[in-house]
Amino acid sequence: MFKGDRPYWWIGETSLYNDETRPELRQFTNTCESGPGTPSGHLMLNVALFYVATKGISKLFIQKSTKLSLCQKSILSAVVYTGFLLWIGVIFISRLYIQAHFIHQNILGVIIGLGLSSDQRYVVLNAPRNFIRTILTIKGGILIGKMAAMIQANLPTDDMVLFLALSFGLNIALPFIIIALLPHFLLTVYYGN
């Protein structure tokens, strides 16, 4: 159910084309990824991560500012959200361009990523900001991402159903861990709450 063929392989294997009509595709280094194509993990992670960042910037730095007028707040918030949408658009197009995903897989990745939410996020967002905690969060996120990549590379490939189920679970867990659990853990350790 979650397998989701990737375009580069599908076009080479489908019986919809014969030798004369089959499109010739150029392979990129990122084209042949080992995980399932549905949904797009790149879009899920970027939408979830940058939506939280965008909303936090808008709410904490723009909307709560006492130096800005209502019009200035609206314009700055619109600029921040436009930047978010442009970033997601670039990733969306790039995933199609390198033939790593079909369009429906990207759309599903976007939907599953804007759906990611956690009450822990509000605790972290409302906590006093601290440079050391921010650096630890970034380093922790990078470490967790590298660990997830090692886990993905070592998933069992002999059983496709198990491989796809584990890959899907990893793609769901990774954004939640980085966005909600890691900052909350560091907040608890740092402030002892």
UniProtKB/TrEMBL annotation:
<keyword id="KW-0312">Gluconeogenesis</keyword>
<dbReference type="GO" id="GO:0051156">
    <property type="term" value="P:glucose 6-phosphate metabolic process"/>
</dbReference>
<protein>
    <recommendedName>
        <fullName>glucose-6-phosphatase</fullName>
        <ecNumber>3.1.3.9</ecNumber>
    </recommendedName>
</protein>
<feature type="transmembrane region" description="Helical">
    <location>
        <begin position="43"/>
        <end position="62"/>
    </location>
</feature>
<comment type="pathway">
    <text>Carbohydrate biosynthesis; gluconeogenesis.</text>
</comment>
<feature type="transmembrane region" description="Helical">
    <location>
        <begin position="161"/>
        <end position="186"/>
    </location>
</feature>
<keyword id="KW-0256">Endoplasmic reticulum</keyword>
<dbReference type="GO" id="GO:0006094">
    <property type="term" value="P:gluconeogenesis"/>
</dbReference>
<dbReference type="InterPro" id="IPR000326">
    <property type="entry name" value="PAP2/HPO"/>
</dbReference>
<feature type="transmembrane region" description="Helical">
    <location>
        <begin position="74"/>
        <end position="98"/>
    </location>
</feature>
<keyword id="KW-0378">Hydrolase</keyword>
<feature type="domain" description="Phosphatidic acid phosphatase type 2/haloperoxidase">
    <location>
        <begin position="2"/>
        <end position="116"/>
    </location>
</feature>
<feature type="transmembrane region" description="Helical">
    <location>
        <begin position="131"/>
        <end position="149"/>
    </location>
</feature>
<dbReference type="Pfam" id="PF01569">
    <property type="entry name" value="PAP2"/>
</dbReference>
<dbReference type="InterPro" id="IPR036938">
    <property type="entry name" value="PAP2/HPO_sf"/>
</dbReference>
<keyword id="KW-1133">Transmembrane helix</keyword>
<dbReference type="GO" id="GO:0005789">
    <property type="term" value="C:endoplasmic reticulum membrane"/>
</dbReference>
<keyword id="KW-0472">Membrane</keyword>
<comment type="similarity">
    <text>Belongs to the glucose-6-phosphatase family.</text>
</comment>
<dbReference type="GO" id="GO:0004346">
    <property type="term" value="F:glucose-6-phosphatase activity"/>
</dbReference>
<keyword id="KW-0812">Transmembrane</keyword>
